[in-house]
Fold this sequence. Notes:
The protein is α/β, with parallel strands linked by helices. The protein folds into 3 domains: 4-135 and 303-337, NAD(P)-binding Rossmann-like Domain (Rossmann fold, 3-Layer(aba) Sandwich); 138-299, Dihydrodipicolinate Reductase, domain 2; 351-434, ACT domain (Alpha-Beta Plaits, 2-Layer Sandwich), CATH 3.30.70.260. Helix content is 35%, strand content 26%. It is built from 13 helices and 17 strands. The protein has helices at 13-33, 64-68, 85-95, 105-122, 138-145, 160-172, 176-185, 194-197, 200-214, 233-241, 303-320, 366-376, 409-420, and strands at residues 4-9, 37-43, 59-61, 75-78, 99-102, 126-127, 151-157, 224-225, 244-254, 259-269, 281-288, 292-299, 351-361, 381-390, 396-404, 407-408, 425-434. β11 and β12 (292-299) form a beta hairpin. α6 crosses α7. The model has no long low-confidence stretch (mean pLDDT 95). The structure holds L-homoserine.
Amino acid sequence: xxxxxxxxxxxGTVGGGTVSVLARNGAEIARRAGRGIKxxxxxxxxxxxxxxxxxxxxxxxxxxxxxxxxxxxxxxVELIGGDSLARxxxxxxxxxxxxxxxANKALIAKHGNEIFAAARAKGVMVAFExxxxxxxxxxxxxxxxxxxxQIQWLAGIINGTGNFILTEMRDKGRDFGxxxxxxxxxxxxxxxxxxxxxxxxxxxxxxxxxxxxxGIPLQFSKVYTEGITRITREDVSNAEELGYRIKHLGIAxxxxxxxxxxxxxxxxxxxxxxxxxxGVMNAVLVKGDAVGPTLFYGAGAGAEPTAxxxxxxxxxxxxxxxxxxENRVPHLAFQADALTDVPILSMDEVETAYYLRMQALDxxxxxxxxxxVLADLQISIEAxxxxxxxxxxxxxxxxxxxxxxxxxxRAMKQAIERIQALPAITGDVVRIRMxxxxxxx
Length: 441
Ligand code: HSE
């Protein structure tokens, strides 16, 4: 049988990796897919740039529209990123009846509902395994492998750059900017690295995971998003002292009143496997009612790990080219007319535990005042540490570090306001959320 003809948009890190993996493993991939998969044309912004992959036999163009409009091409692989030109190209490819494979999380999180509707109308597939957690086949796992479960919650380290920065800060005391520059040089970081450190990239990925886990439309604008830029080495070492580790997590949880969608730094017990996922690695913990907790671990970024997911999607699309569209796996795991409109909870309604750190004048009654505020709001304390330290003027001050039990965020906000208003408390209260992620939750 003739090989399937593929057009590649973008020859950057992941594009280059895709060319290399297909070239190296082509014979084995054809045995899996039932026919060969051949990149016939690829686009790049700068055709003169030297590349690590071998593009022999691939027609190169600087015009990506030449690919989506090429009648010979059956599958378009979109690897240029961003959500403006990429959206235009993907919509054009779909209108031209081409199947699409993309690694673009921003595109799917923000425009996926529209893209999937267009794809259904045209009877083509849009596959996006590489959009979440790089090489980890988490989309396929939730969509197919866990299809017998009600997913109760999932929590993931889904931004490699952020995890790399937190790990290096903890282990080597390295400077934030210095580690970020290294992640950029290694090709892990987003074109705009604030997407990594402010949690936007993780929010894109969480949006996608939540949709396929719970059967809800993609709702990126409703994700609560907080980055890692305010995490200090002091908080990292306090957390360690208390038996916790700070990780930047994306959390989606089904509750009786709605769905929690949140990305923020989180203390988790250090003995959890996911607390030990370090460097650029990603991991996603998924709790299903039947299977219990399951953990998926692997490289979340980089040329060939991400290409591994792109090529797996190419194999999937190739295998199903002859299938009736109604019999294909639905884009968002649930049939398009069976998505539900369960509300996404506002952060005020979310219930979680907290790490608090505050600076206080070292004088009698301060701790009693703080604990009274918490007691008045029914917030129960799990642990307290007090550390004496002289301030700039030589006066004695103390750092008070507390862990609380679970409480609604609204009550915690009120507590923090009242604590900050106490005369003996200096400066703002630092608040980091805390999750046990235990199999009982
Ligand atoms: N910037 C992303 C990360 C790349 O660091 O995880 C993979 O999506």
